[in-house]
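Propose amino acids for all 250 sites.
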């Protein structure tokens, strides 16, 4: 079913690696033009080169208002409009007792996982409202549904994303802007070691034991769900937080 996003214009944040890169690649394969927004300018540029003429890299710190405003201007100049916004950029938390996490780390988690969605929505809403079939997709986490100990403030940030998704969906429905989320289980991405407190056979076995299907998620798993939720096939789907989790949240 190639071409499910034919002609769509998209911004994907945190798209230089991990889930974001997988989503950007799938969007291009389905016919979209994609802005790869990432704080790592070199990695973003490399990702765009790999994806060809349908991708364009823009350096952006999603937690900084001025940087997000510049992203909006540059993206619209290249895309000529906007149909899809994927808020994928996020940061992990190493397992830490809740009272021992330092304030700077808490602020960083809140800024990237939460505030960034406010900033991108505020910036992109006028362009999305002009699209005949707009959608916002927020990448949350199973941590927002079934939290793990030692990750309290990360868990809370992802629960916030799910709540924000539902609230955005109901407010933006009259403007025909759909808003959904994906809840990935722990995935084979650069953030995995942080989640597990170190990547060892023992920590992998412990995490995998909590996933009934017995494996981590992959960028391809999340990208497949993202393509569906951002396509016209999901035209009546809004306010959903879709678990892509191998049964983790059952």
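Proposal:
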């Amino acid at each position: 079913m190639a071409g499910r996003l034919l002609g769509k214009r998209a911004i994907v944040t945190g798209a230089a690696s991990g889930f974001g890169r997988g989503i950007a690649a799938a969007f291009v394969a389905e016919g979209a033009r994609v802005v790869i927004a990432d704080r790592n300018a070199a990695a973003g540029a490399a990702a765009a080169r790999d994806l060809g003429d349908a991708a364009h890299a823009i350096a952006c710190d999603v937690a900084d208002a001025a940087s997000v405003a510049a992203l909006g201007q540059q993206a619209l100049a290249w895309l000529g409009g906007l149909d899809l916004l994927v808020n994928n950029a996020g940061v992990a938390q190493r397992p830490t007792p809740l009272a021992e996490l330092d304030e700077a780390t808490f602020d960083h988690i809140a800024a990237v996982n939460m505030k960034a969605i406010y900033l991108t929505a505020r910036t992109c809403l006028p362009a999305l409202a002009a699209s005949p079939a707009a959608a916002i997709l927020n990448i949350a986490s199973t941590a927002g549904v079934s939290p793990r100990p030692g990750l309290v403030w990360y868990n809370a940030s992802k629960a916030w994303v799910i709540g924000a998704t539902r609230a955005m969906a109901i407010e933006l429905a009259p403007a025909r802007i759909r808003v959904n989320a994906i809840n990935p289980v722990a995935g084979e991405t650069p953030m995995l070691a942080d989640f597990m407190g170190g990547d060892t056979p023992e920590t992998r076995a412990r995490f995998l034991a909590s996933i009934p299907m017995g494996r981590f998620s992959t960028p391809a798993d999340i990208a497949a769900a993202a393509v569906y939720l951002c396509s016209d096939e999901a035209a009546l789907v809004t306010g959903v937080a879709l678990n892509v989790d191998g049964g983790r949240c059952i």
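Helices lie at 18-29, 41-51, 65-79, 103-129, 152-172, 192-196, 201-208, 219-230. The first strand starts at residue 9 and ends at 13.
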